[in-house]
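Extended Data, panel c. Modelled sequence:
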Amino acid sequence: MSFKRLTLLLLATSLASGCSSLLPNNDGQAAAASPMDSEEVMMATGDEDFKASVAAGSDNNSRTDARLDDAISPELQARAKDARTKLDEPVAQEKSTGANDDLWQRLRSGFALDHSVDNGRVQAQLDWYTSHPRYINRVVDRGSRYLYYILEQAEERDLPTEFALLPIVESAFDPFAYSHGRAAGLWQFIPSTAKYFGLTESWWHDDRRDVIKATNAAFTYLERLTNRFDGNYMLALASYNAGGGTISSAMRQNRNAGKSTDFWSLALPRETRHYVPKLIALAKIFDNPEAYNIELPSLKNQPYFEVVKTGSQLDLAQAARLAEVDINEIYLLNPSYNRWATTPEGPHRLLVPKKNADTFREALARFPKEQRVSWQDYRVKAGDNLGAIALKFSTTPSVIKQANNLDSDLIRIGQQLLIPSATKDSDAYALSQPQRLKRTQNRERDGTKVQYTVRSGDTFWEIARDHDVSVRQVAAWNGMAPGDPLIPGKELVIWSQTTDRTIANRASSRDNMVRRVGYRVRSGDSLHAIANKFAVNVRDIASWNDLNTDRYLQPGQSLVLYVDVRNSP
């Protein structure tokens, strides 16, 4: 085929697919690729760890040592445990004086889901919540900083106000929550969905943890899912967890079998089957707590925080001092920041407690701009490069280039560089990403603690196999998800279950014996069959490819396998 004919064919195909995307579609299935069409179940952090903490009678914050996003730098994590516990401390509030002053009454006035549903899955959740009333108290304490804003946004969009309770199901109102499926923040956005809805991330920040941006993105997503399923809120909620494509497929199967297509009748992944009932059970309790012998903590119908424009980058320790609040409060209201300062590019704003907003504005106006971020002078030495200098000062080459108006990575001996740096020592920034990671890595566990430096070509599976542990364990111990990239030079902590000699033997042999293999799924294939064929584990295949084992493989689907050539077919 000539190049001209091939070009015309590709153009015609493109135009055809573009036109077809404008046509209506059954089951709310849009043709254009988007999160609305996804068939990927979002593996959220959820509230199971938090439930376990409550059930065990612990007053400690169970999420202190929970998985954290590896984007938050390793040198700032020592006091994270104490700081993160602040989430569970009740926010000081005066007693509500009437219905108009009660946030719960306002929440109830916008309820729109059917709370009368009689279903065993809802009842199972109700039974647990009512037998553990401390759970409700603690989760309200966590959400008290954010609920007013979230409720306000639901109302502005005319969405059911039950949706304001969704972060309980997603993250137990932990703004730093990070799941093994790489979902982050109150609303547990995975990277691809976050990008689709305009949530950005950099060395300095991750919008998935931004209270305002992530809330707005979540409600935009829920709004579109509601429209996709003709105003059916239950299907929209299920799609937020399982993907619109998953729900559309289940509806189509039921329709072909002559069955109902309501949420309760669909064959859905296990997580999704329990996801919506959790929210319904919570809504029933918040709607009528007396009926379940639960007393909700008082929450006033007024904003907890206010947005203050800073005008430029600002050290968070300086911000806390100027606002006269604890730095942990600054991090809990601004959890998107990975480092010790706001982003250089903006938006230049901070959330601060409303009662401190005027104090902060006035102090900031008097504070010299050149002191808002501390700088260090550095003279380039022989053998230096931007990467090495960045590593020395816990920053990145791009940040140094930007601060010094460099057009390239070239630097010369004797050149003077300005390096942005924190005004306080690392312990002062207890909730920054480095501090949280350090706390996670330093927690005592079973086994022998091993410091491992990632080498080129390493995989989670190989490292885990060498130490007789699981992929998920290695990832969790280092604040990562199994699908995160392993960068050569990165330091990992592993709680090894094997001997030094065994580790050495395995590490030396795997370089020659393990190969990365691409495999295309054939008709009739299953994870079990593929695992048996290549002498690997089903869980490993799922981890390498970020698969949900509850879902079927599709013919033509591409998989990555790490196969020991001695056992391969």
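The longest strand covers residues 514-520. This feature is highlighted in the accompanying rendering.
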